[in-house]
Amino acid sequence: MNENMKYYNLMRAVPIEAQKRFDNGSFAGTDIKPQWRIEKLTEVFGMCGFGWYVDVVNRHMEEASNGTVCTFVSINLYVKVGGEWSKPIYGEGGNTFVKSVKAKDNKPAYLSVTDEAYKMAYTDAISNAAKMIGLGADIWFDNSPTKYDLQMQREKELFEHE
Predict the structure, then answer these.
(1) What Rg do the C-alpha atoms of the chain give, in angstroms?
(2) What is the pTM of this model?
């Protein structure tokens, strides 16, 4: 195995029991259960705080013109390899704090608030940082078509219609 790919390959595969399907209306795919991410970082690098850790760089909220409020958390992930700490591995996550919900039965829409928005944004930030070192790469590779993949699909569709 190529030494440069050692840790990437140790973390890329995600067992079925750690996967969860989602469909948020605008995007559907497979996500990775957060506790599995923590377990895998611990398995590969050691206990949190000793073999890996996270520093929160920034937390903030932004309000959209429609009343939606989103939380964002920026972090640096650090991992220890061979007794040496890594440079910061940046990750950013976000989640909705306040959103408008369409009510049923002709009732007016209402605002829904979650008290876990920062926690979910933090978890998302860890996930995004850990992608950089291969955590769950097989899932992200399948879920994330690049602009080149999309361009090739459009060209294939055009060719098939000629």
Answers:
(1) 19
(2) 0.78
Structure tokens at 148: 């080149």
Q: How far is CA 46 from CA 38, 52, 94, in A?
A: 10, 7, 27
Query: Tens of pLDDT along 74-98?
Result: 999 999 999 999 999 999 999 989 8
Which two three-digit tokens encode residue 157? Answer: 């569709």
H or E element: which one contains 28? strand 28-32
Q: What residue spans of the chain are helical by DSSP H?
A: 6-11, 34-45, 117-131, 137-143, 147-161
* Residue 30, amino acid: T
Name, in order, each residue with C-beta under 8 angstroms of 18's C-beta and a sequence gap of 6 or more: 32, 33, 36
**What burial letters (b/e) apply to 83-108, b meaning 16+ CB within 10 Å?**
eeeeeebebebbbbbbbeeeeeeeee
CA 102, 72, 131: angle at the middle one, nearest 5? 110
